[in-house]
Amino acid sequence: MGCAEFRPPPQLSRDSLHCHPTLRSALGCRTSFAREKKEGSEAAFQASFAARLRHAIQTTSPVDWETPLPAKVAPAVAPRLPIKVWTTDESRFGLLTTRRQRLTLRGIKPLAICQHDFDTTYLYGAVAPLAGESVFLELPYLDTEHFQIFLDYFASRYPESLNLMVLDNGGYHTTPKLRRPEQIRFVFTPPYTPEVSPIERVFEDVKDKVTAEVYQSLDELSESLCGVIQAYTPERLSSLTGYPFFREGAKAVSVGL
């Protein structure tokens, strides 16, 4: 299998990045899960979401969940760039067949082809629920190096806006080794709270569409992912990710700017 030279794709990678020798490494995923979910953190994050976004506009430092907000968060001052609020995350897809329930006649056992192949690829994504804008990129690993590739690609797509990325506390998101582009700010969610990450619904929808198939190679899986992602309309993505607290917070910092 040949390997194409790496270049930024127009929307989702159609190059077989999973076979590129400079990207496929033995490092794997280096994630720390030292923190635990605390009761009430989900509701507290939703209640303070708009304040966290306003604070992210005022500072270049990431807005961490465990760092208390200032006693009084100043009203957002209109920056030189328009503001966009993004829900950001990653999801793994692989060749191992995922078995799911099927409706059949009573007494009829459903039959399906399964394979036990453990090759995987990762889909990095960001969606702006207010407008349904999106950026997706398929990469072979989930680690700092590849999240940096995604950040740089995202920044090249949205250089004319101040982008507030709401994301979880994965080690590849929080490491000081990241070179965060100037127009991107991070707002971290509480540990283990996917309920406040609207993009999770997009990944669930993608998996519903691709997991029923048996793919002979990662190239086949990649092509299927491309087709599913590119079929989404902004209206559909906005509907999937339009959590009320997220939309209200994004509107609060975007109105009039």
Q: Write down the overall mean pLDDT.
A: 84
Largest sheet: 5 strands, mixed
| CATH topology term | Nucleotidyltransferase, domain 5
What's the β-strand tally? 5
CATH homology superfamily name? Ribonuclease H-like superfamily/Ribonuclease H
Secondary-structure topology with pairs:
Elements: H1 41-47, H2 49-58, E1 83-94, E2 120-128, E3 133-139, H3 144-157, E4 162-167, H4 171-174, E5 184-188, H5 199-210, H6 218-231, H7 234-241, H8 244-254
Parallel strand pairs: 1-4, 4-5
Antiparallel strand pairs: 1-2, 2-3
Helix pairs in contact: 2-8
Describe the structure.
The protein has 257 residues and is of the alpha/beta class. The chain has one domain: Ribonuclease H-like superfamily/Ribonuclease H (Nucleotidyltransferase, domain 5, 2-Layer Sandwich). The protein has 8 helices and 5 strands. The protein has helices at 41-47, 49-58, 144-157, 171-174, 199-210, 218-231, 234-241, 244-254, and strands at 83-94, 120-128, 133-139, 162-167, 184-188. The chain has a 5-stranded mixed β-sheet with strand order 3-2-1-4-5, with helices on both faces. The longest helix is centred in the middle third of the chain and has 14 residues, at 144-157.
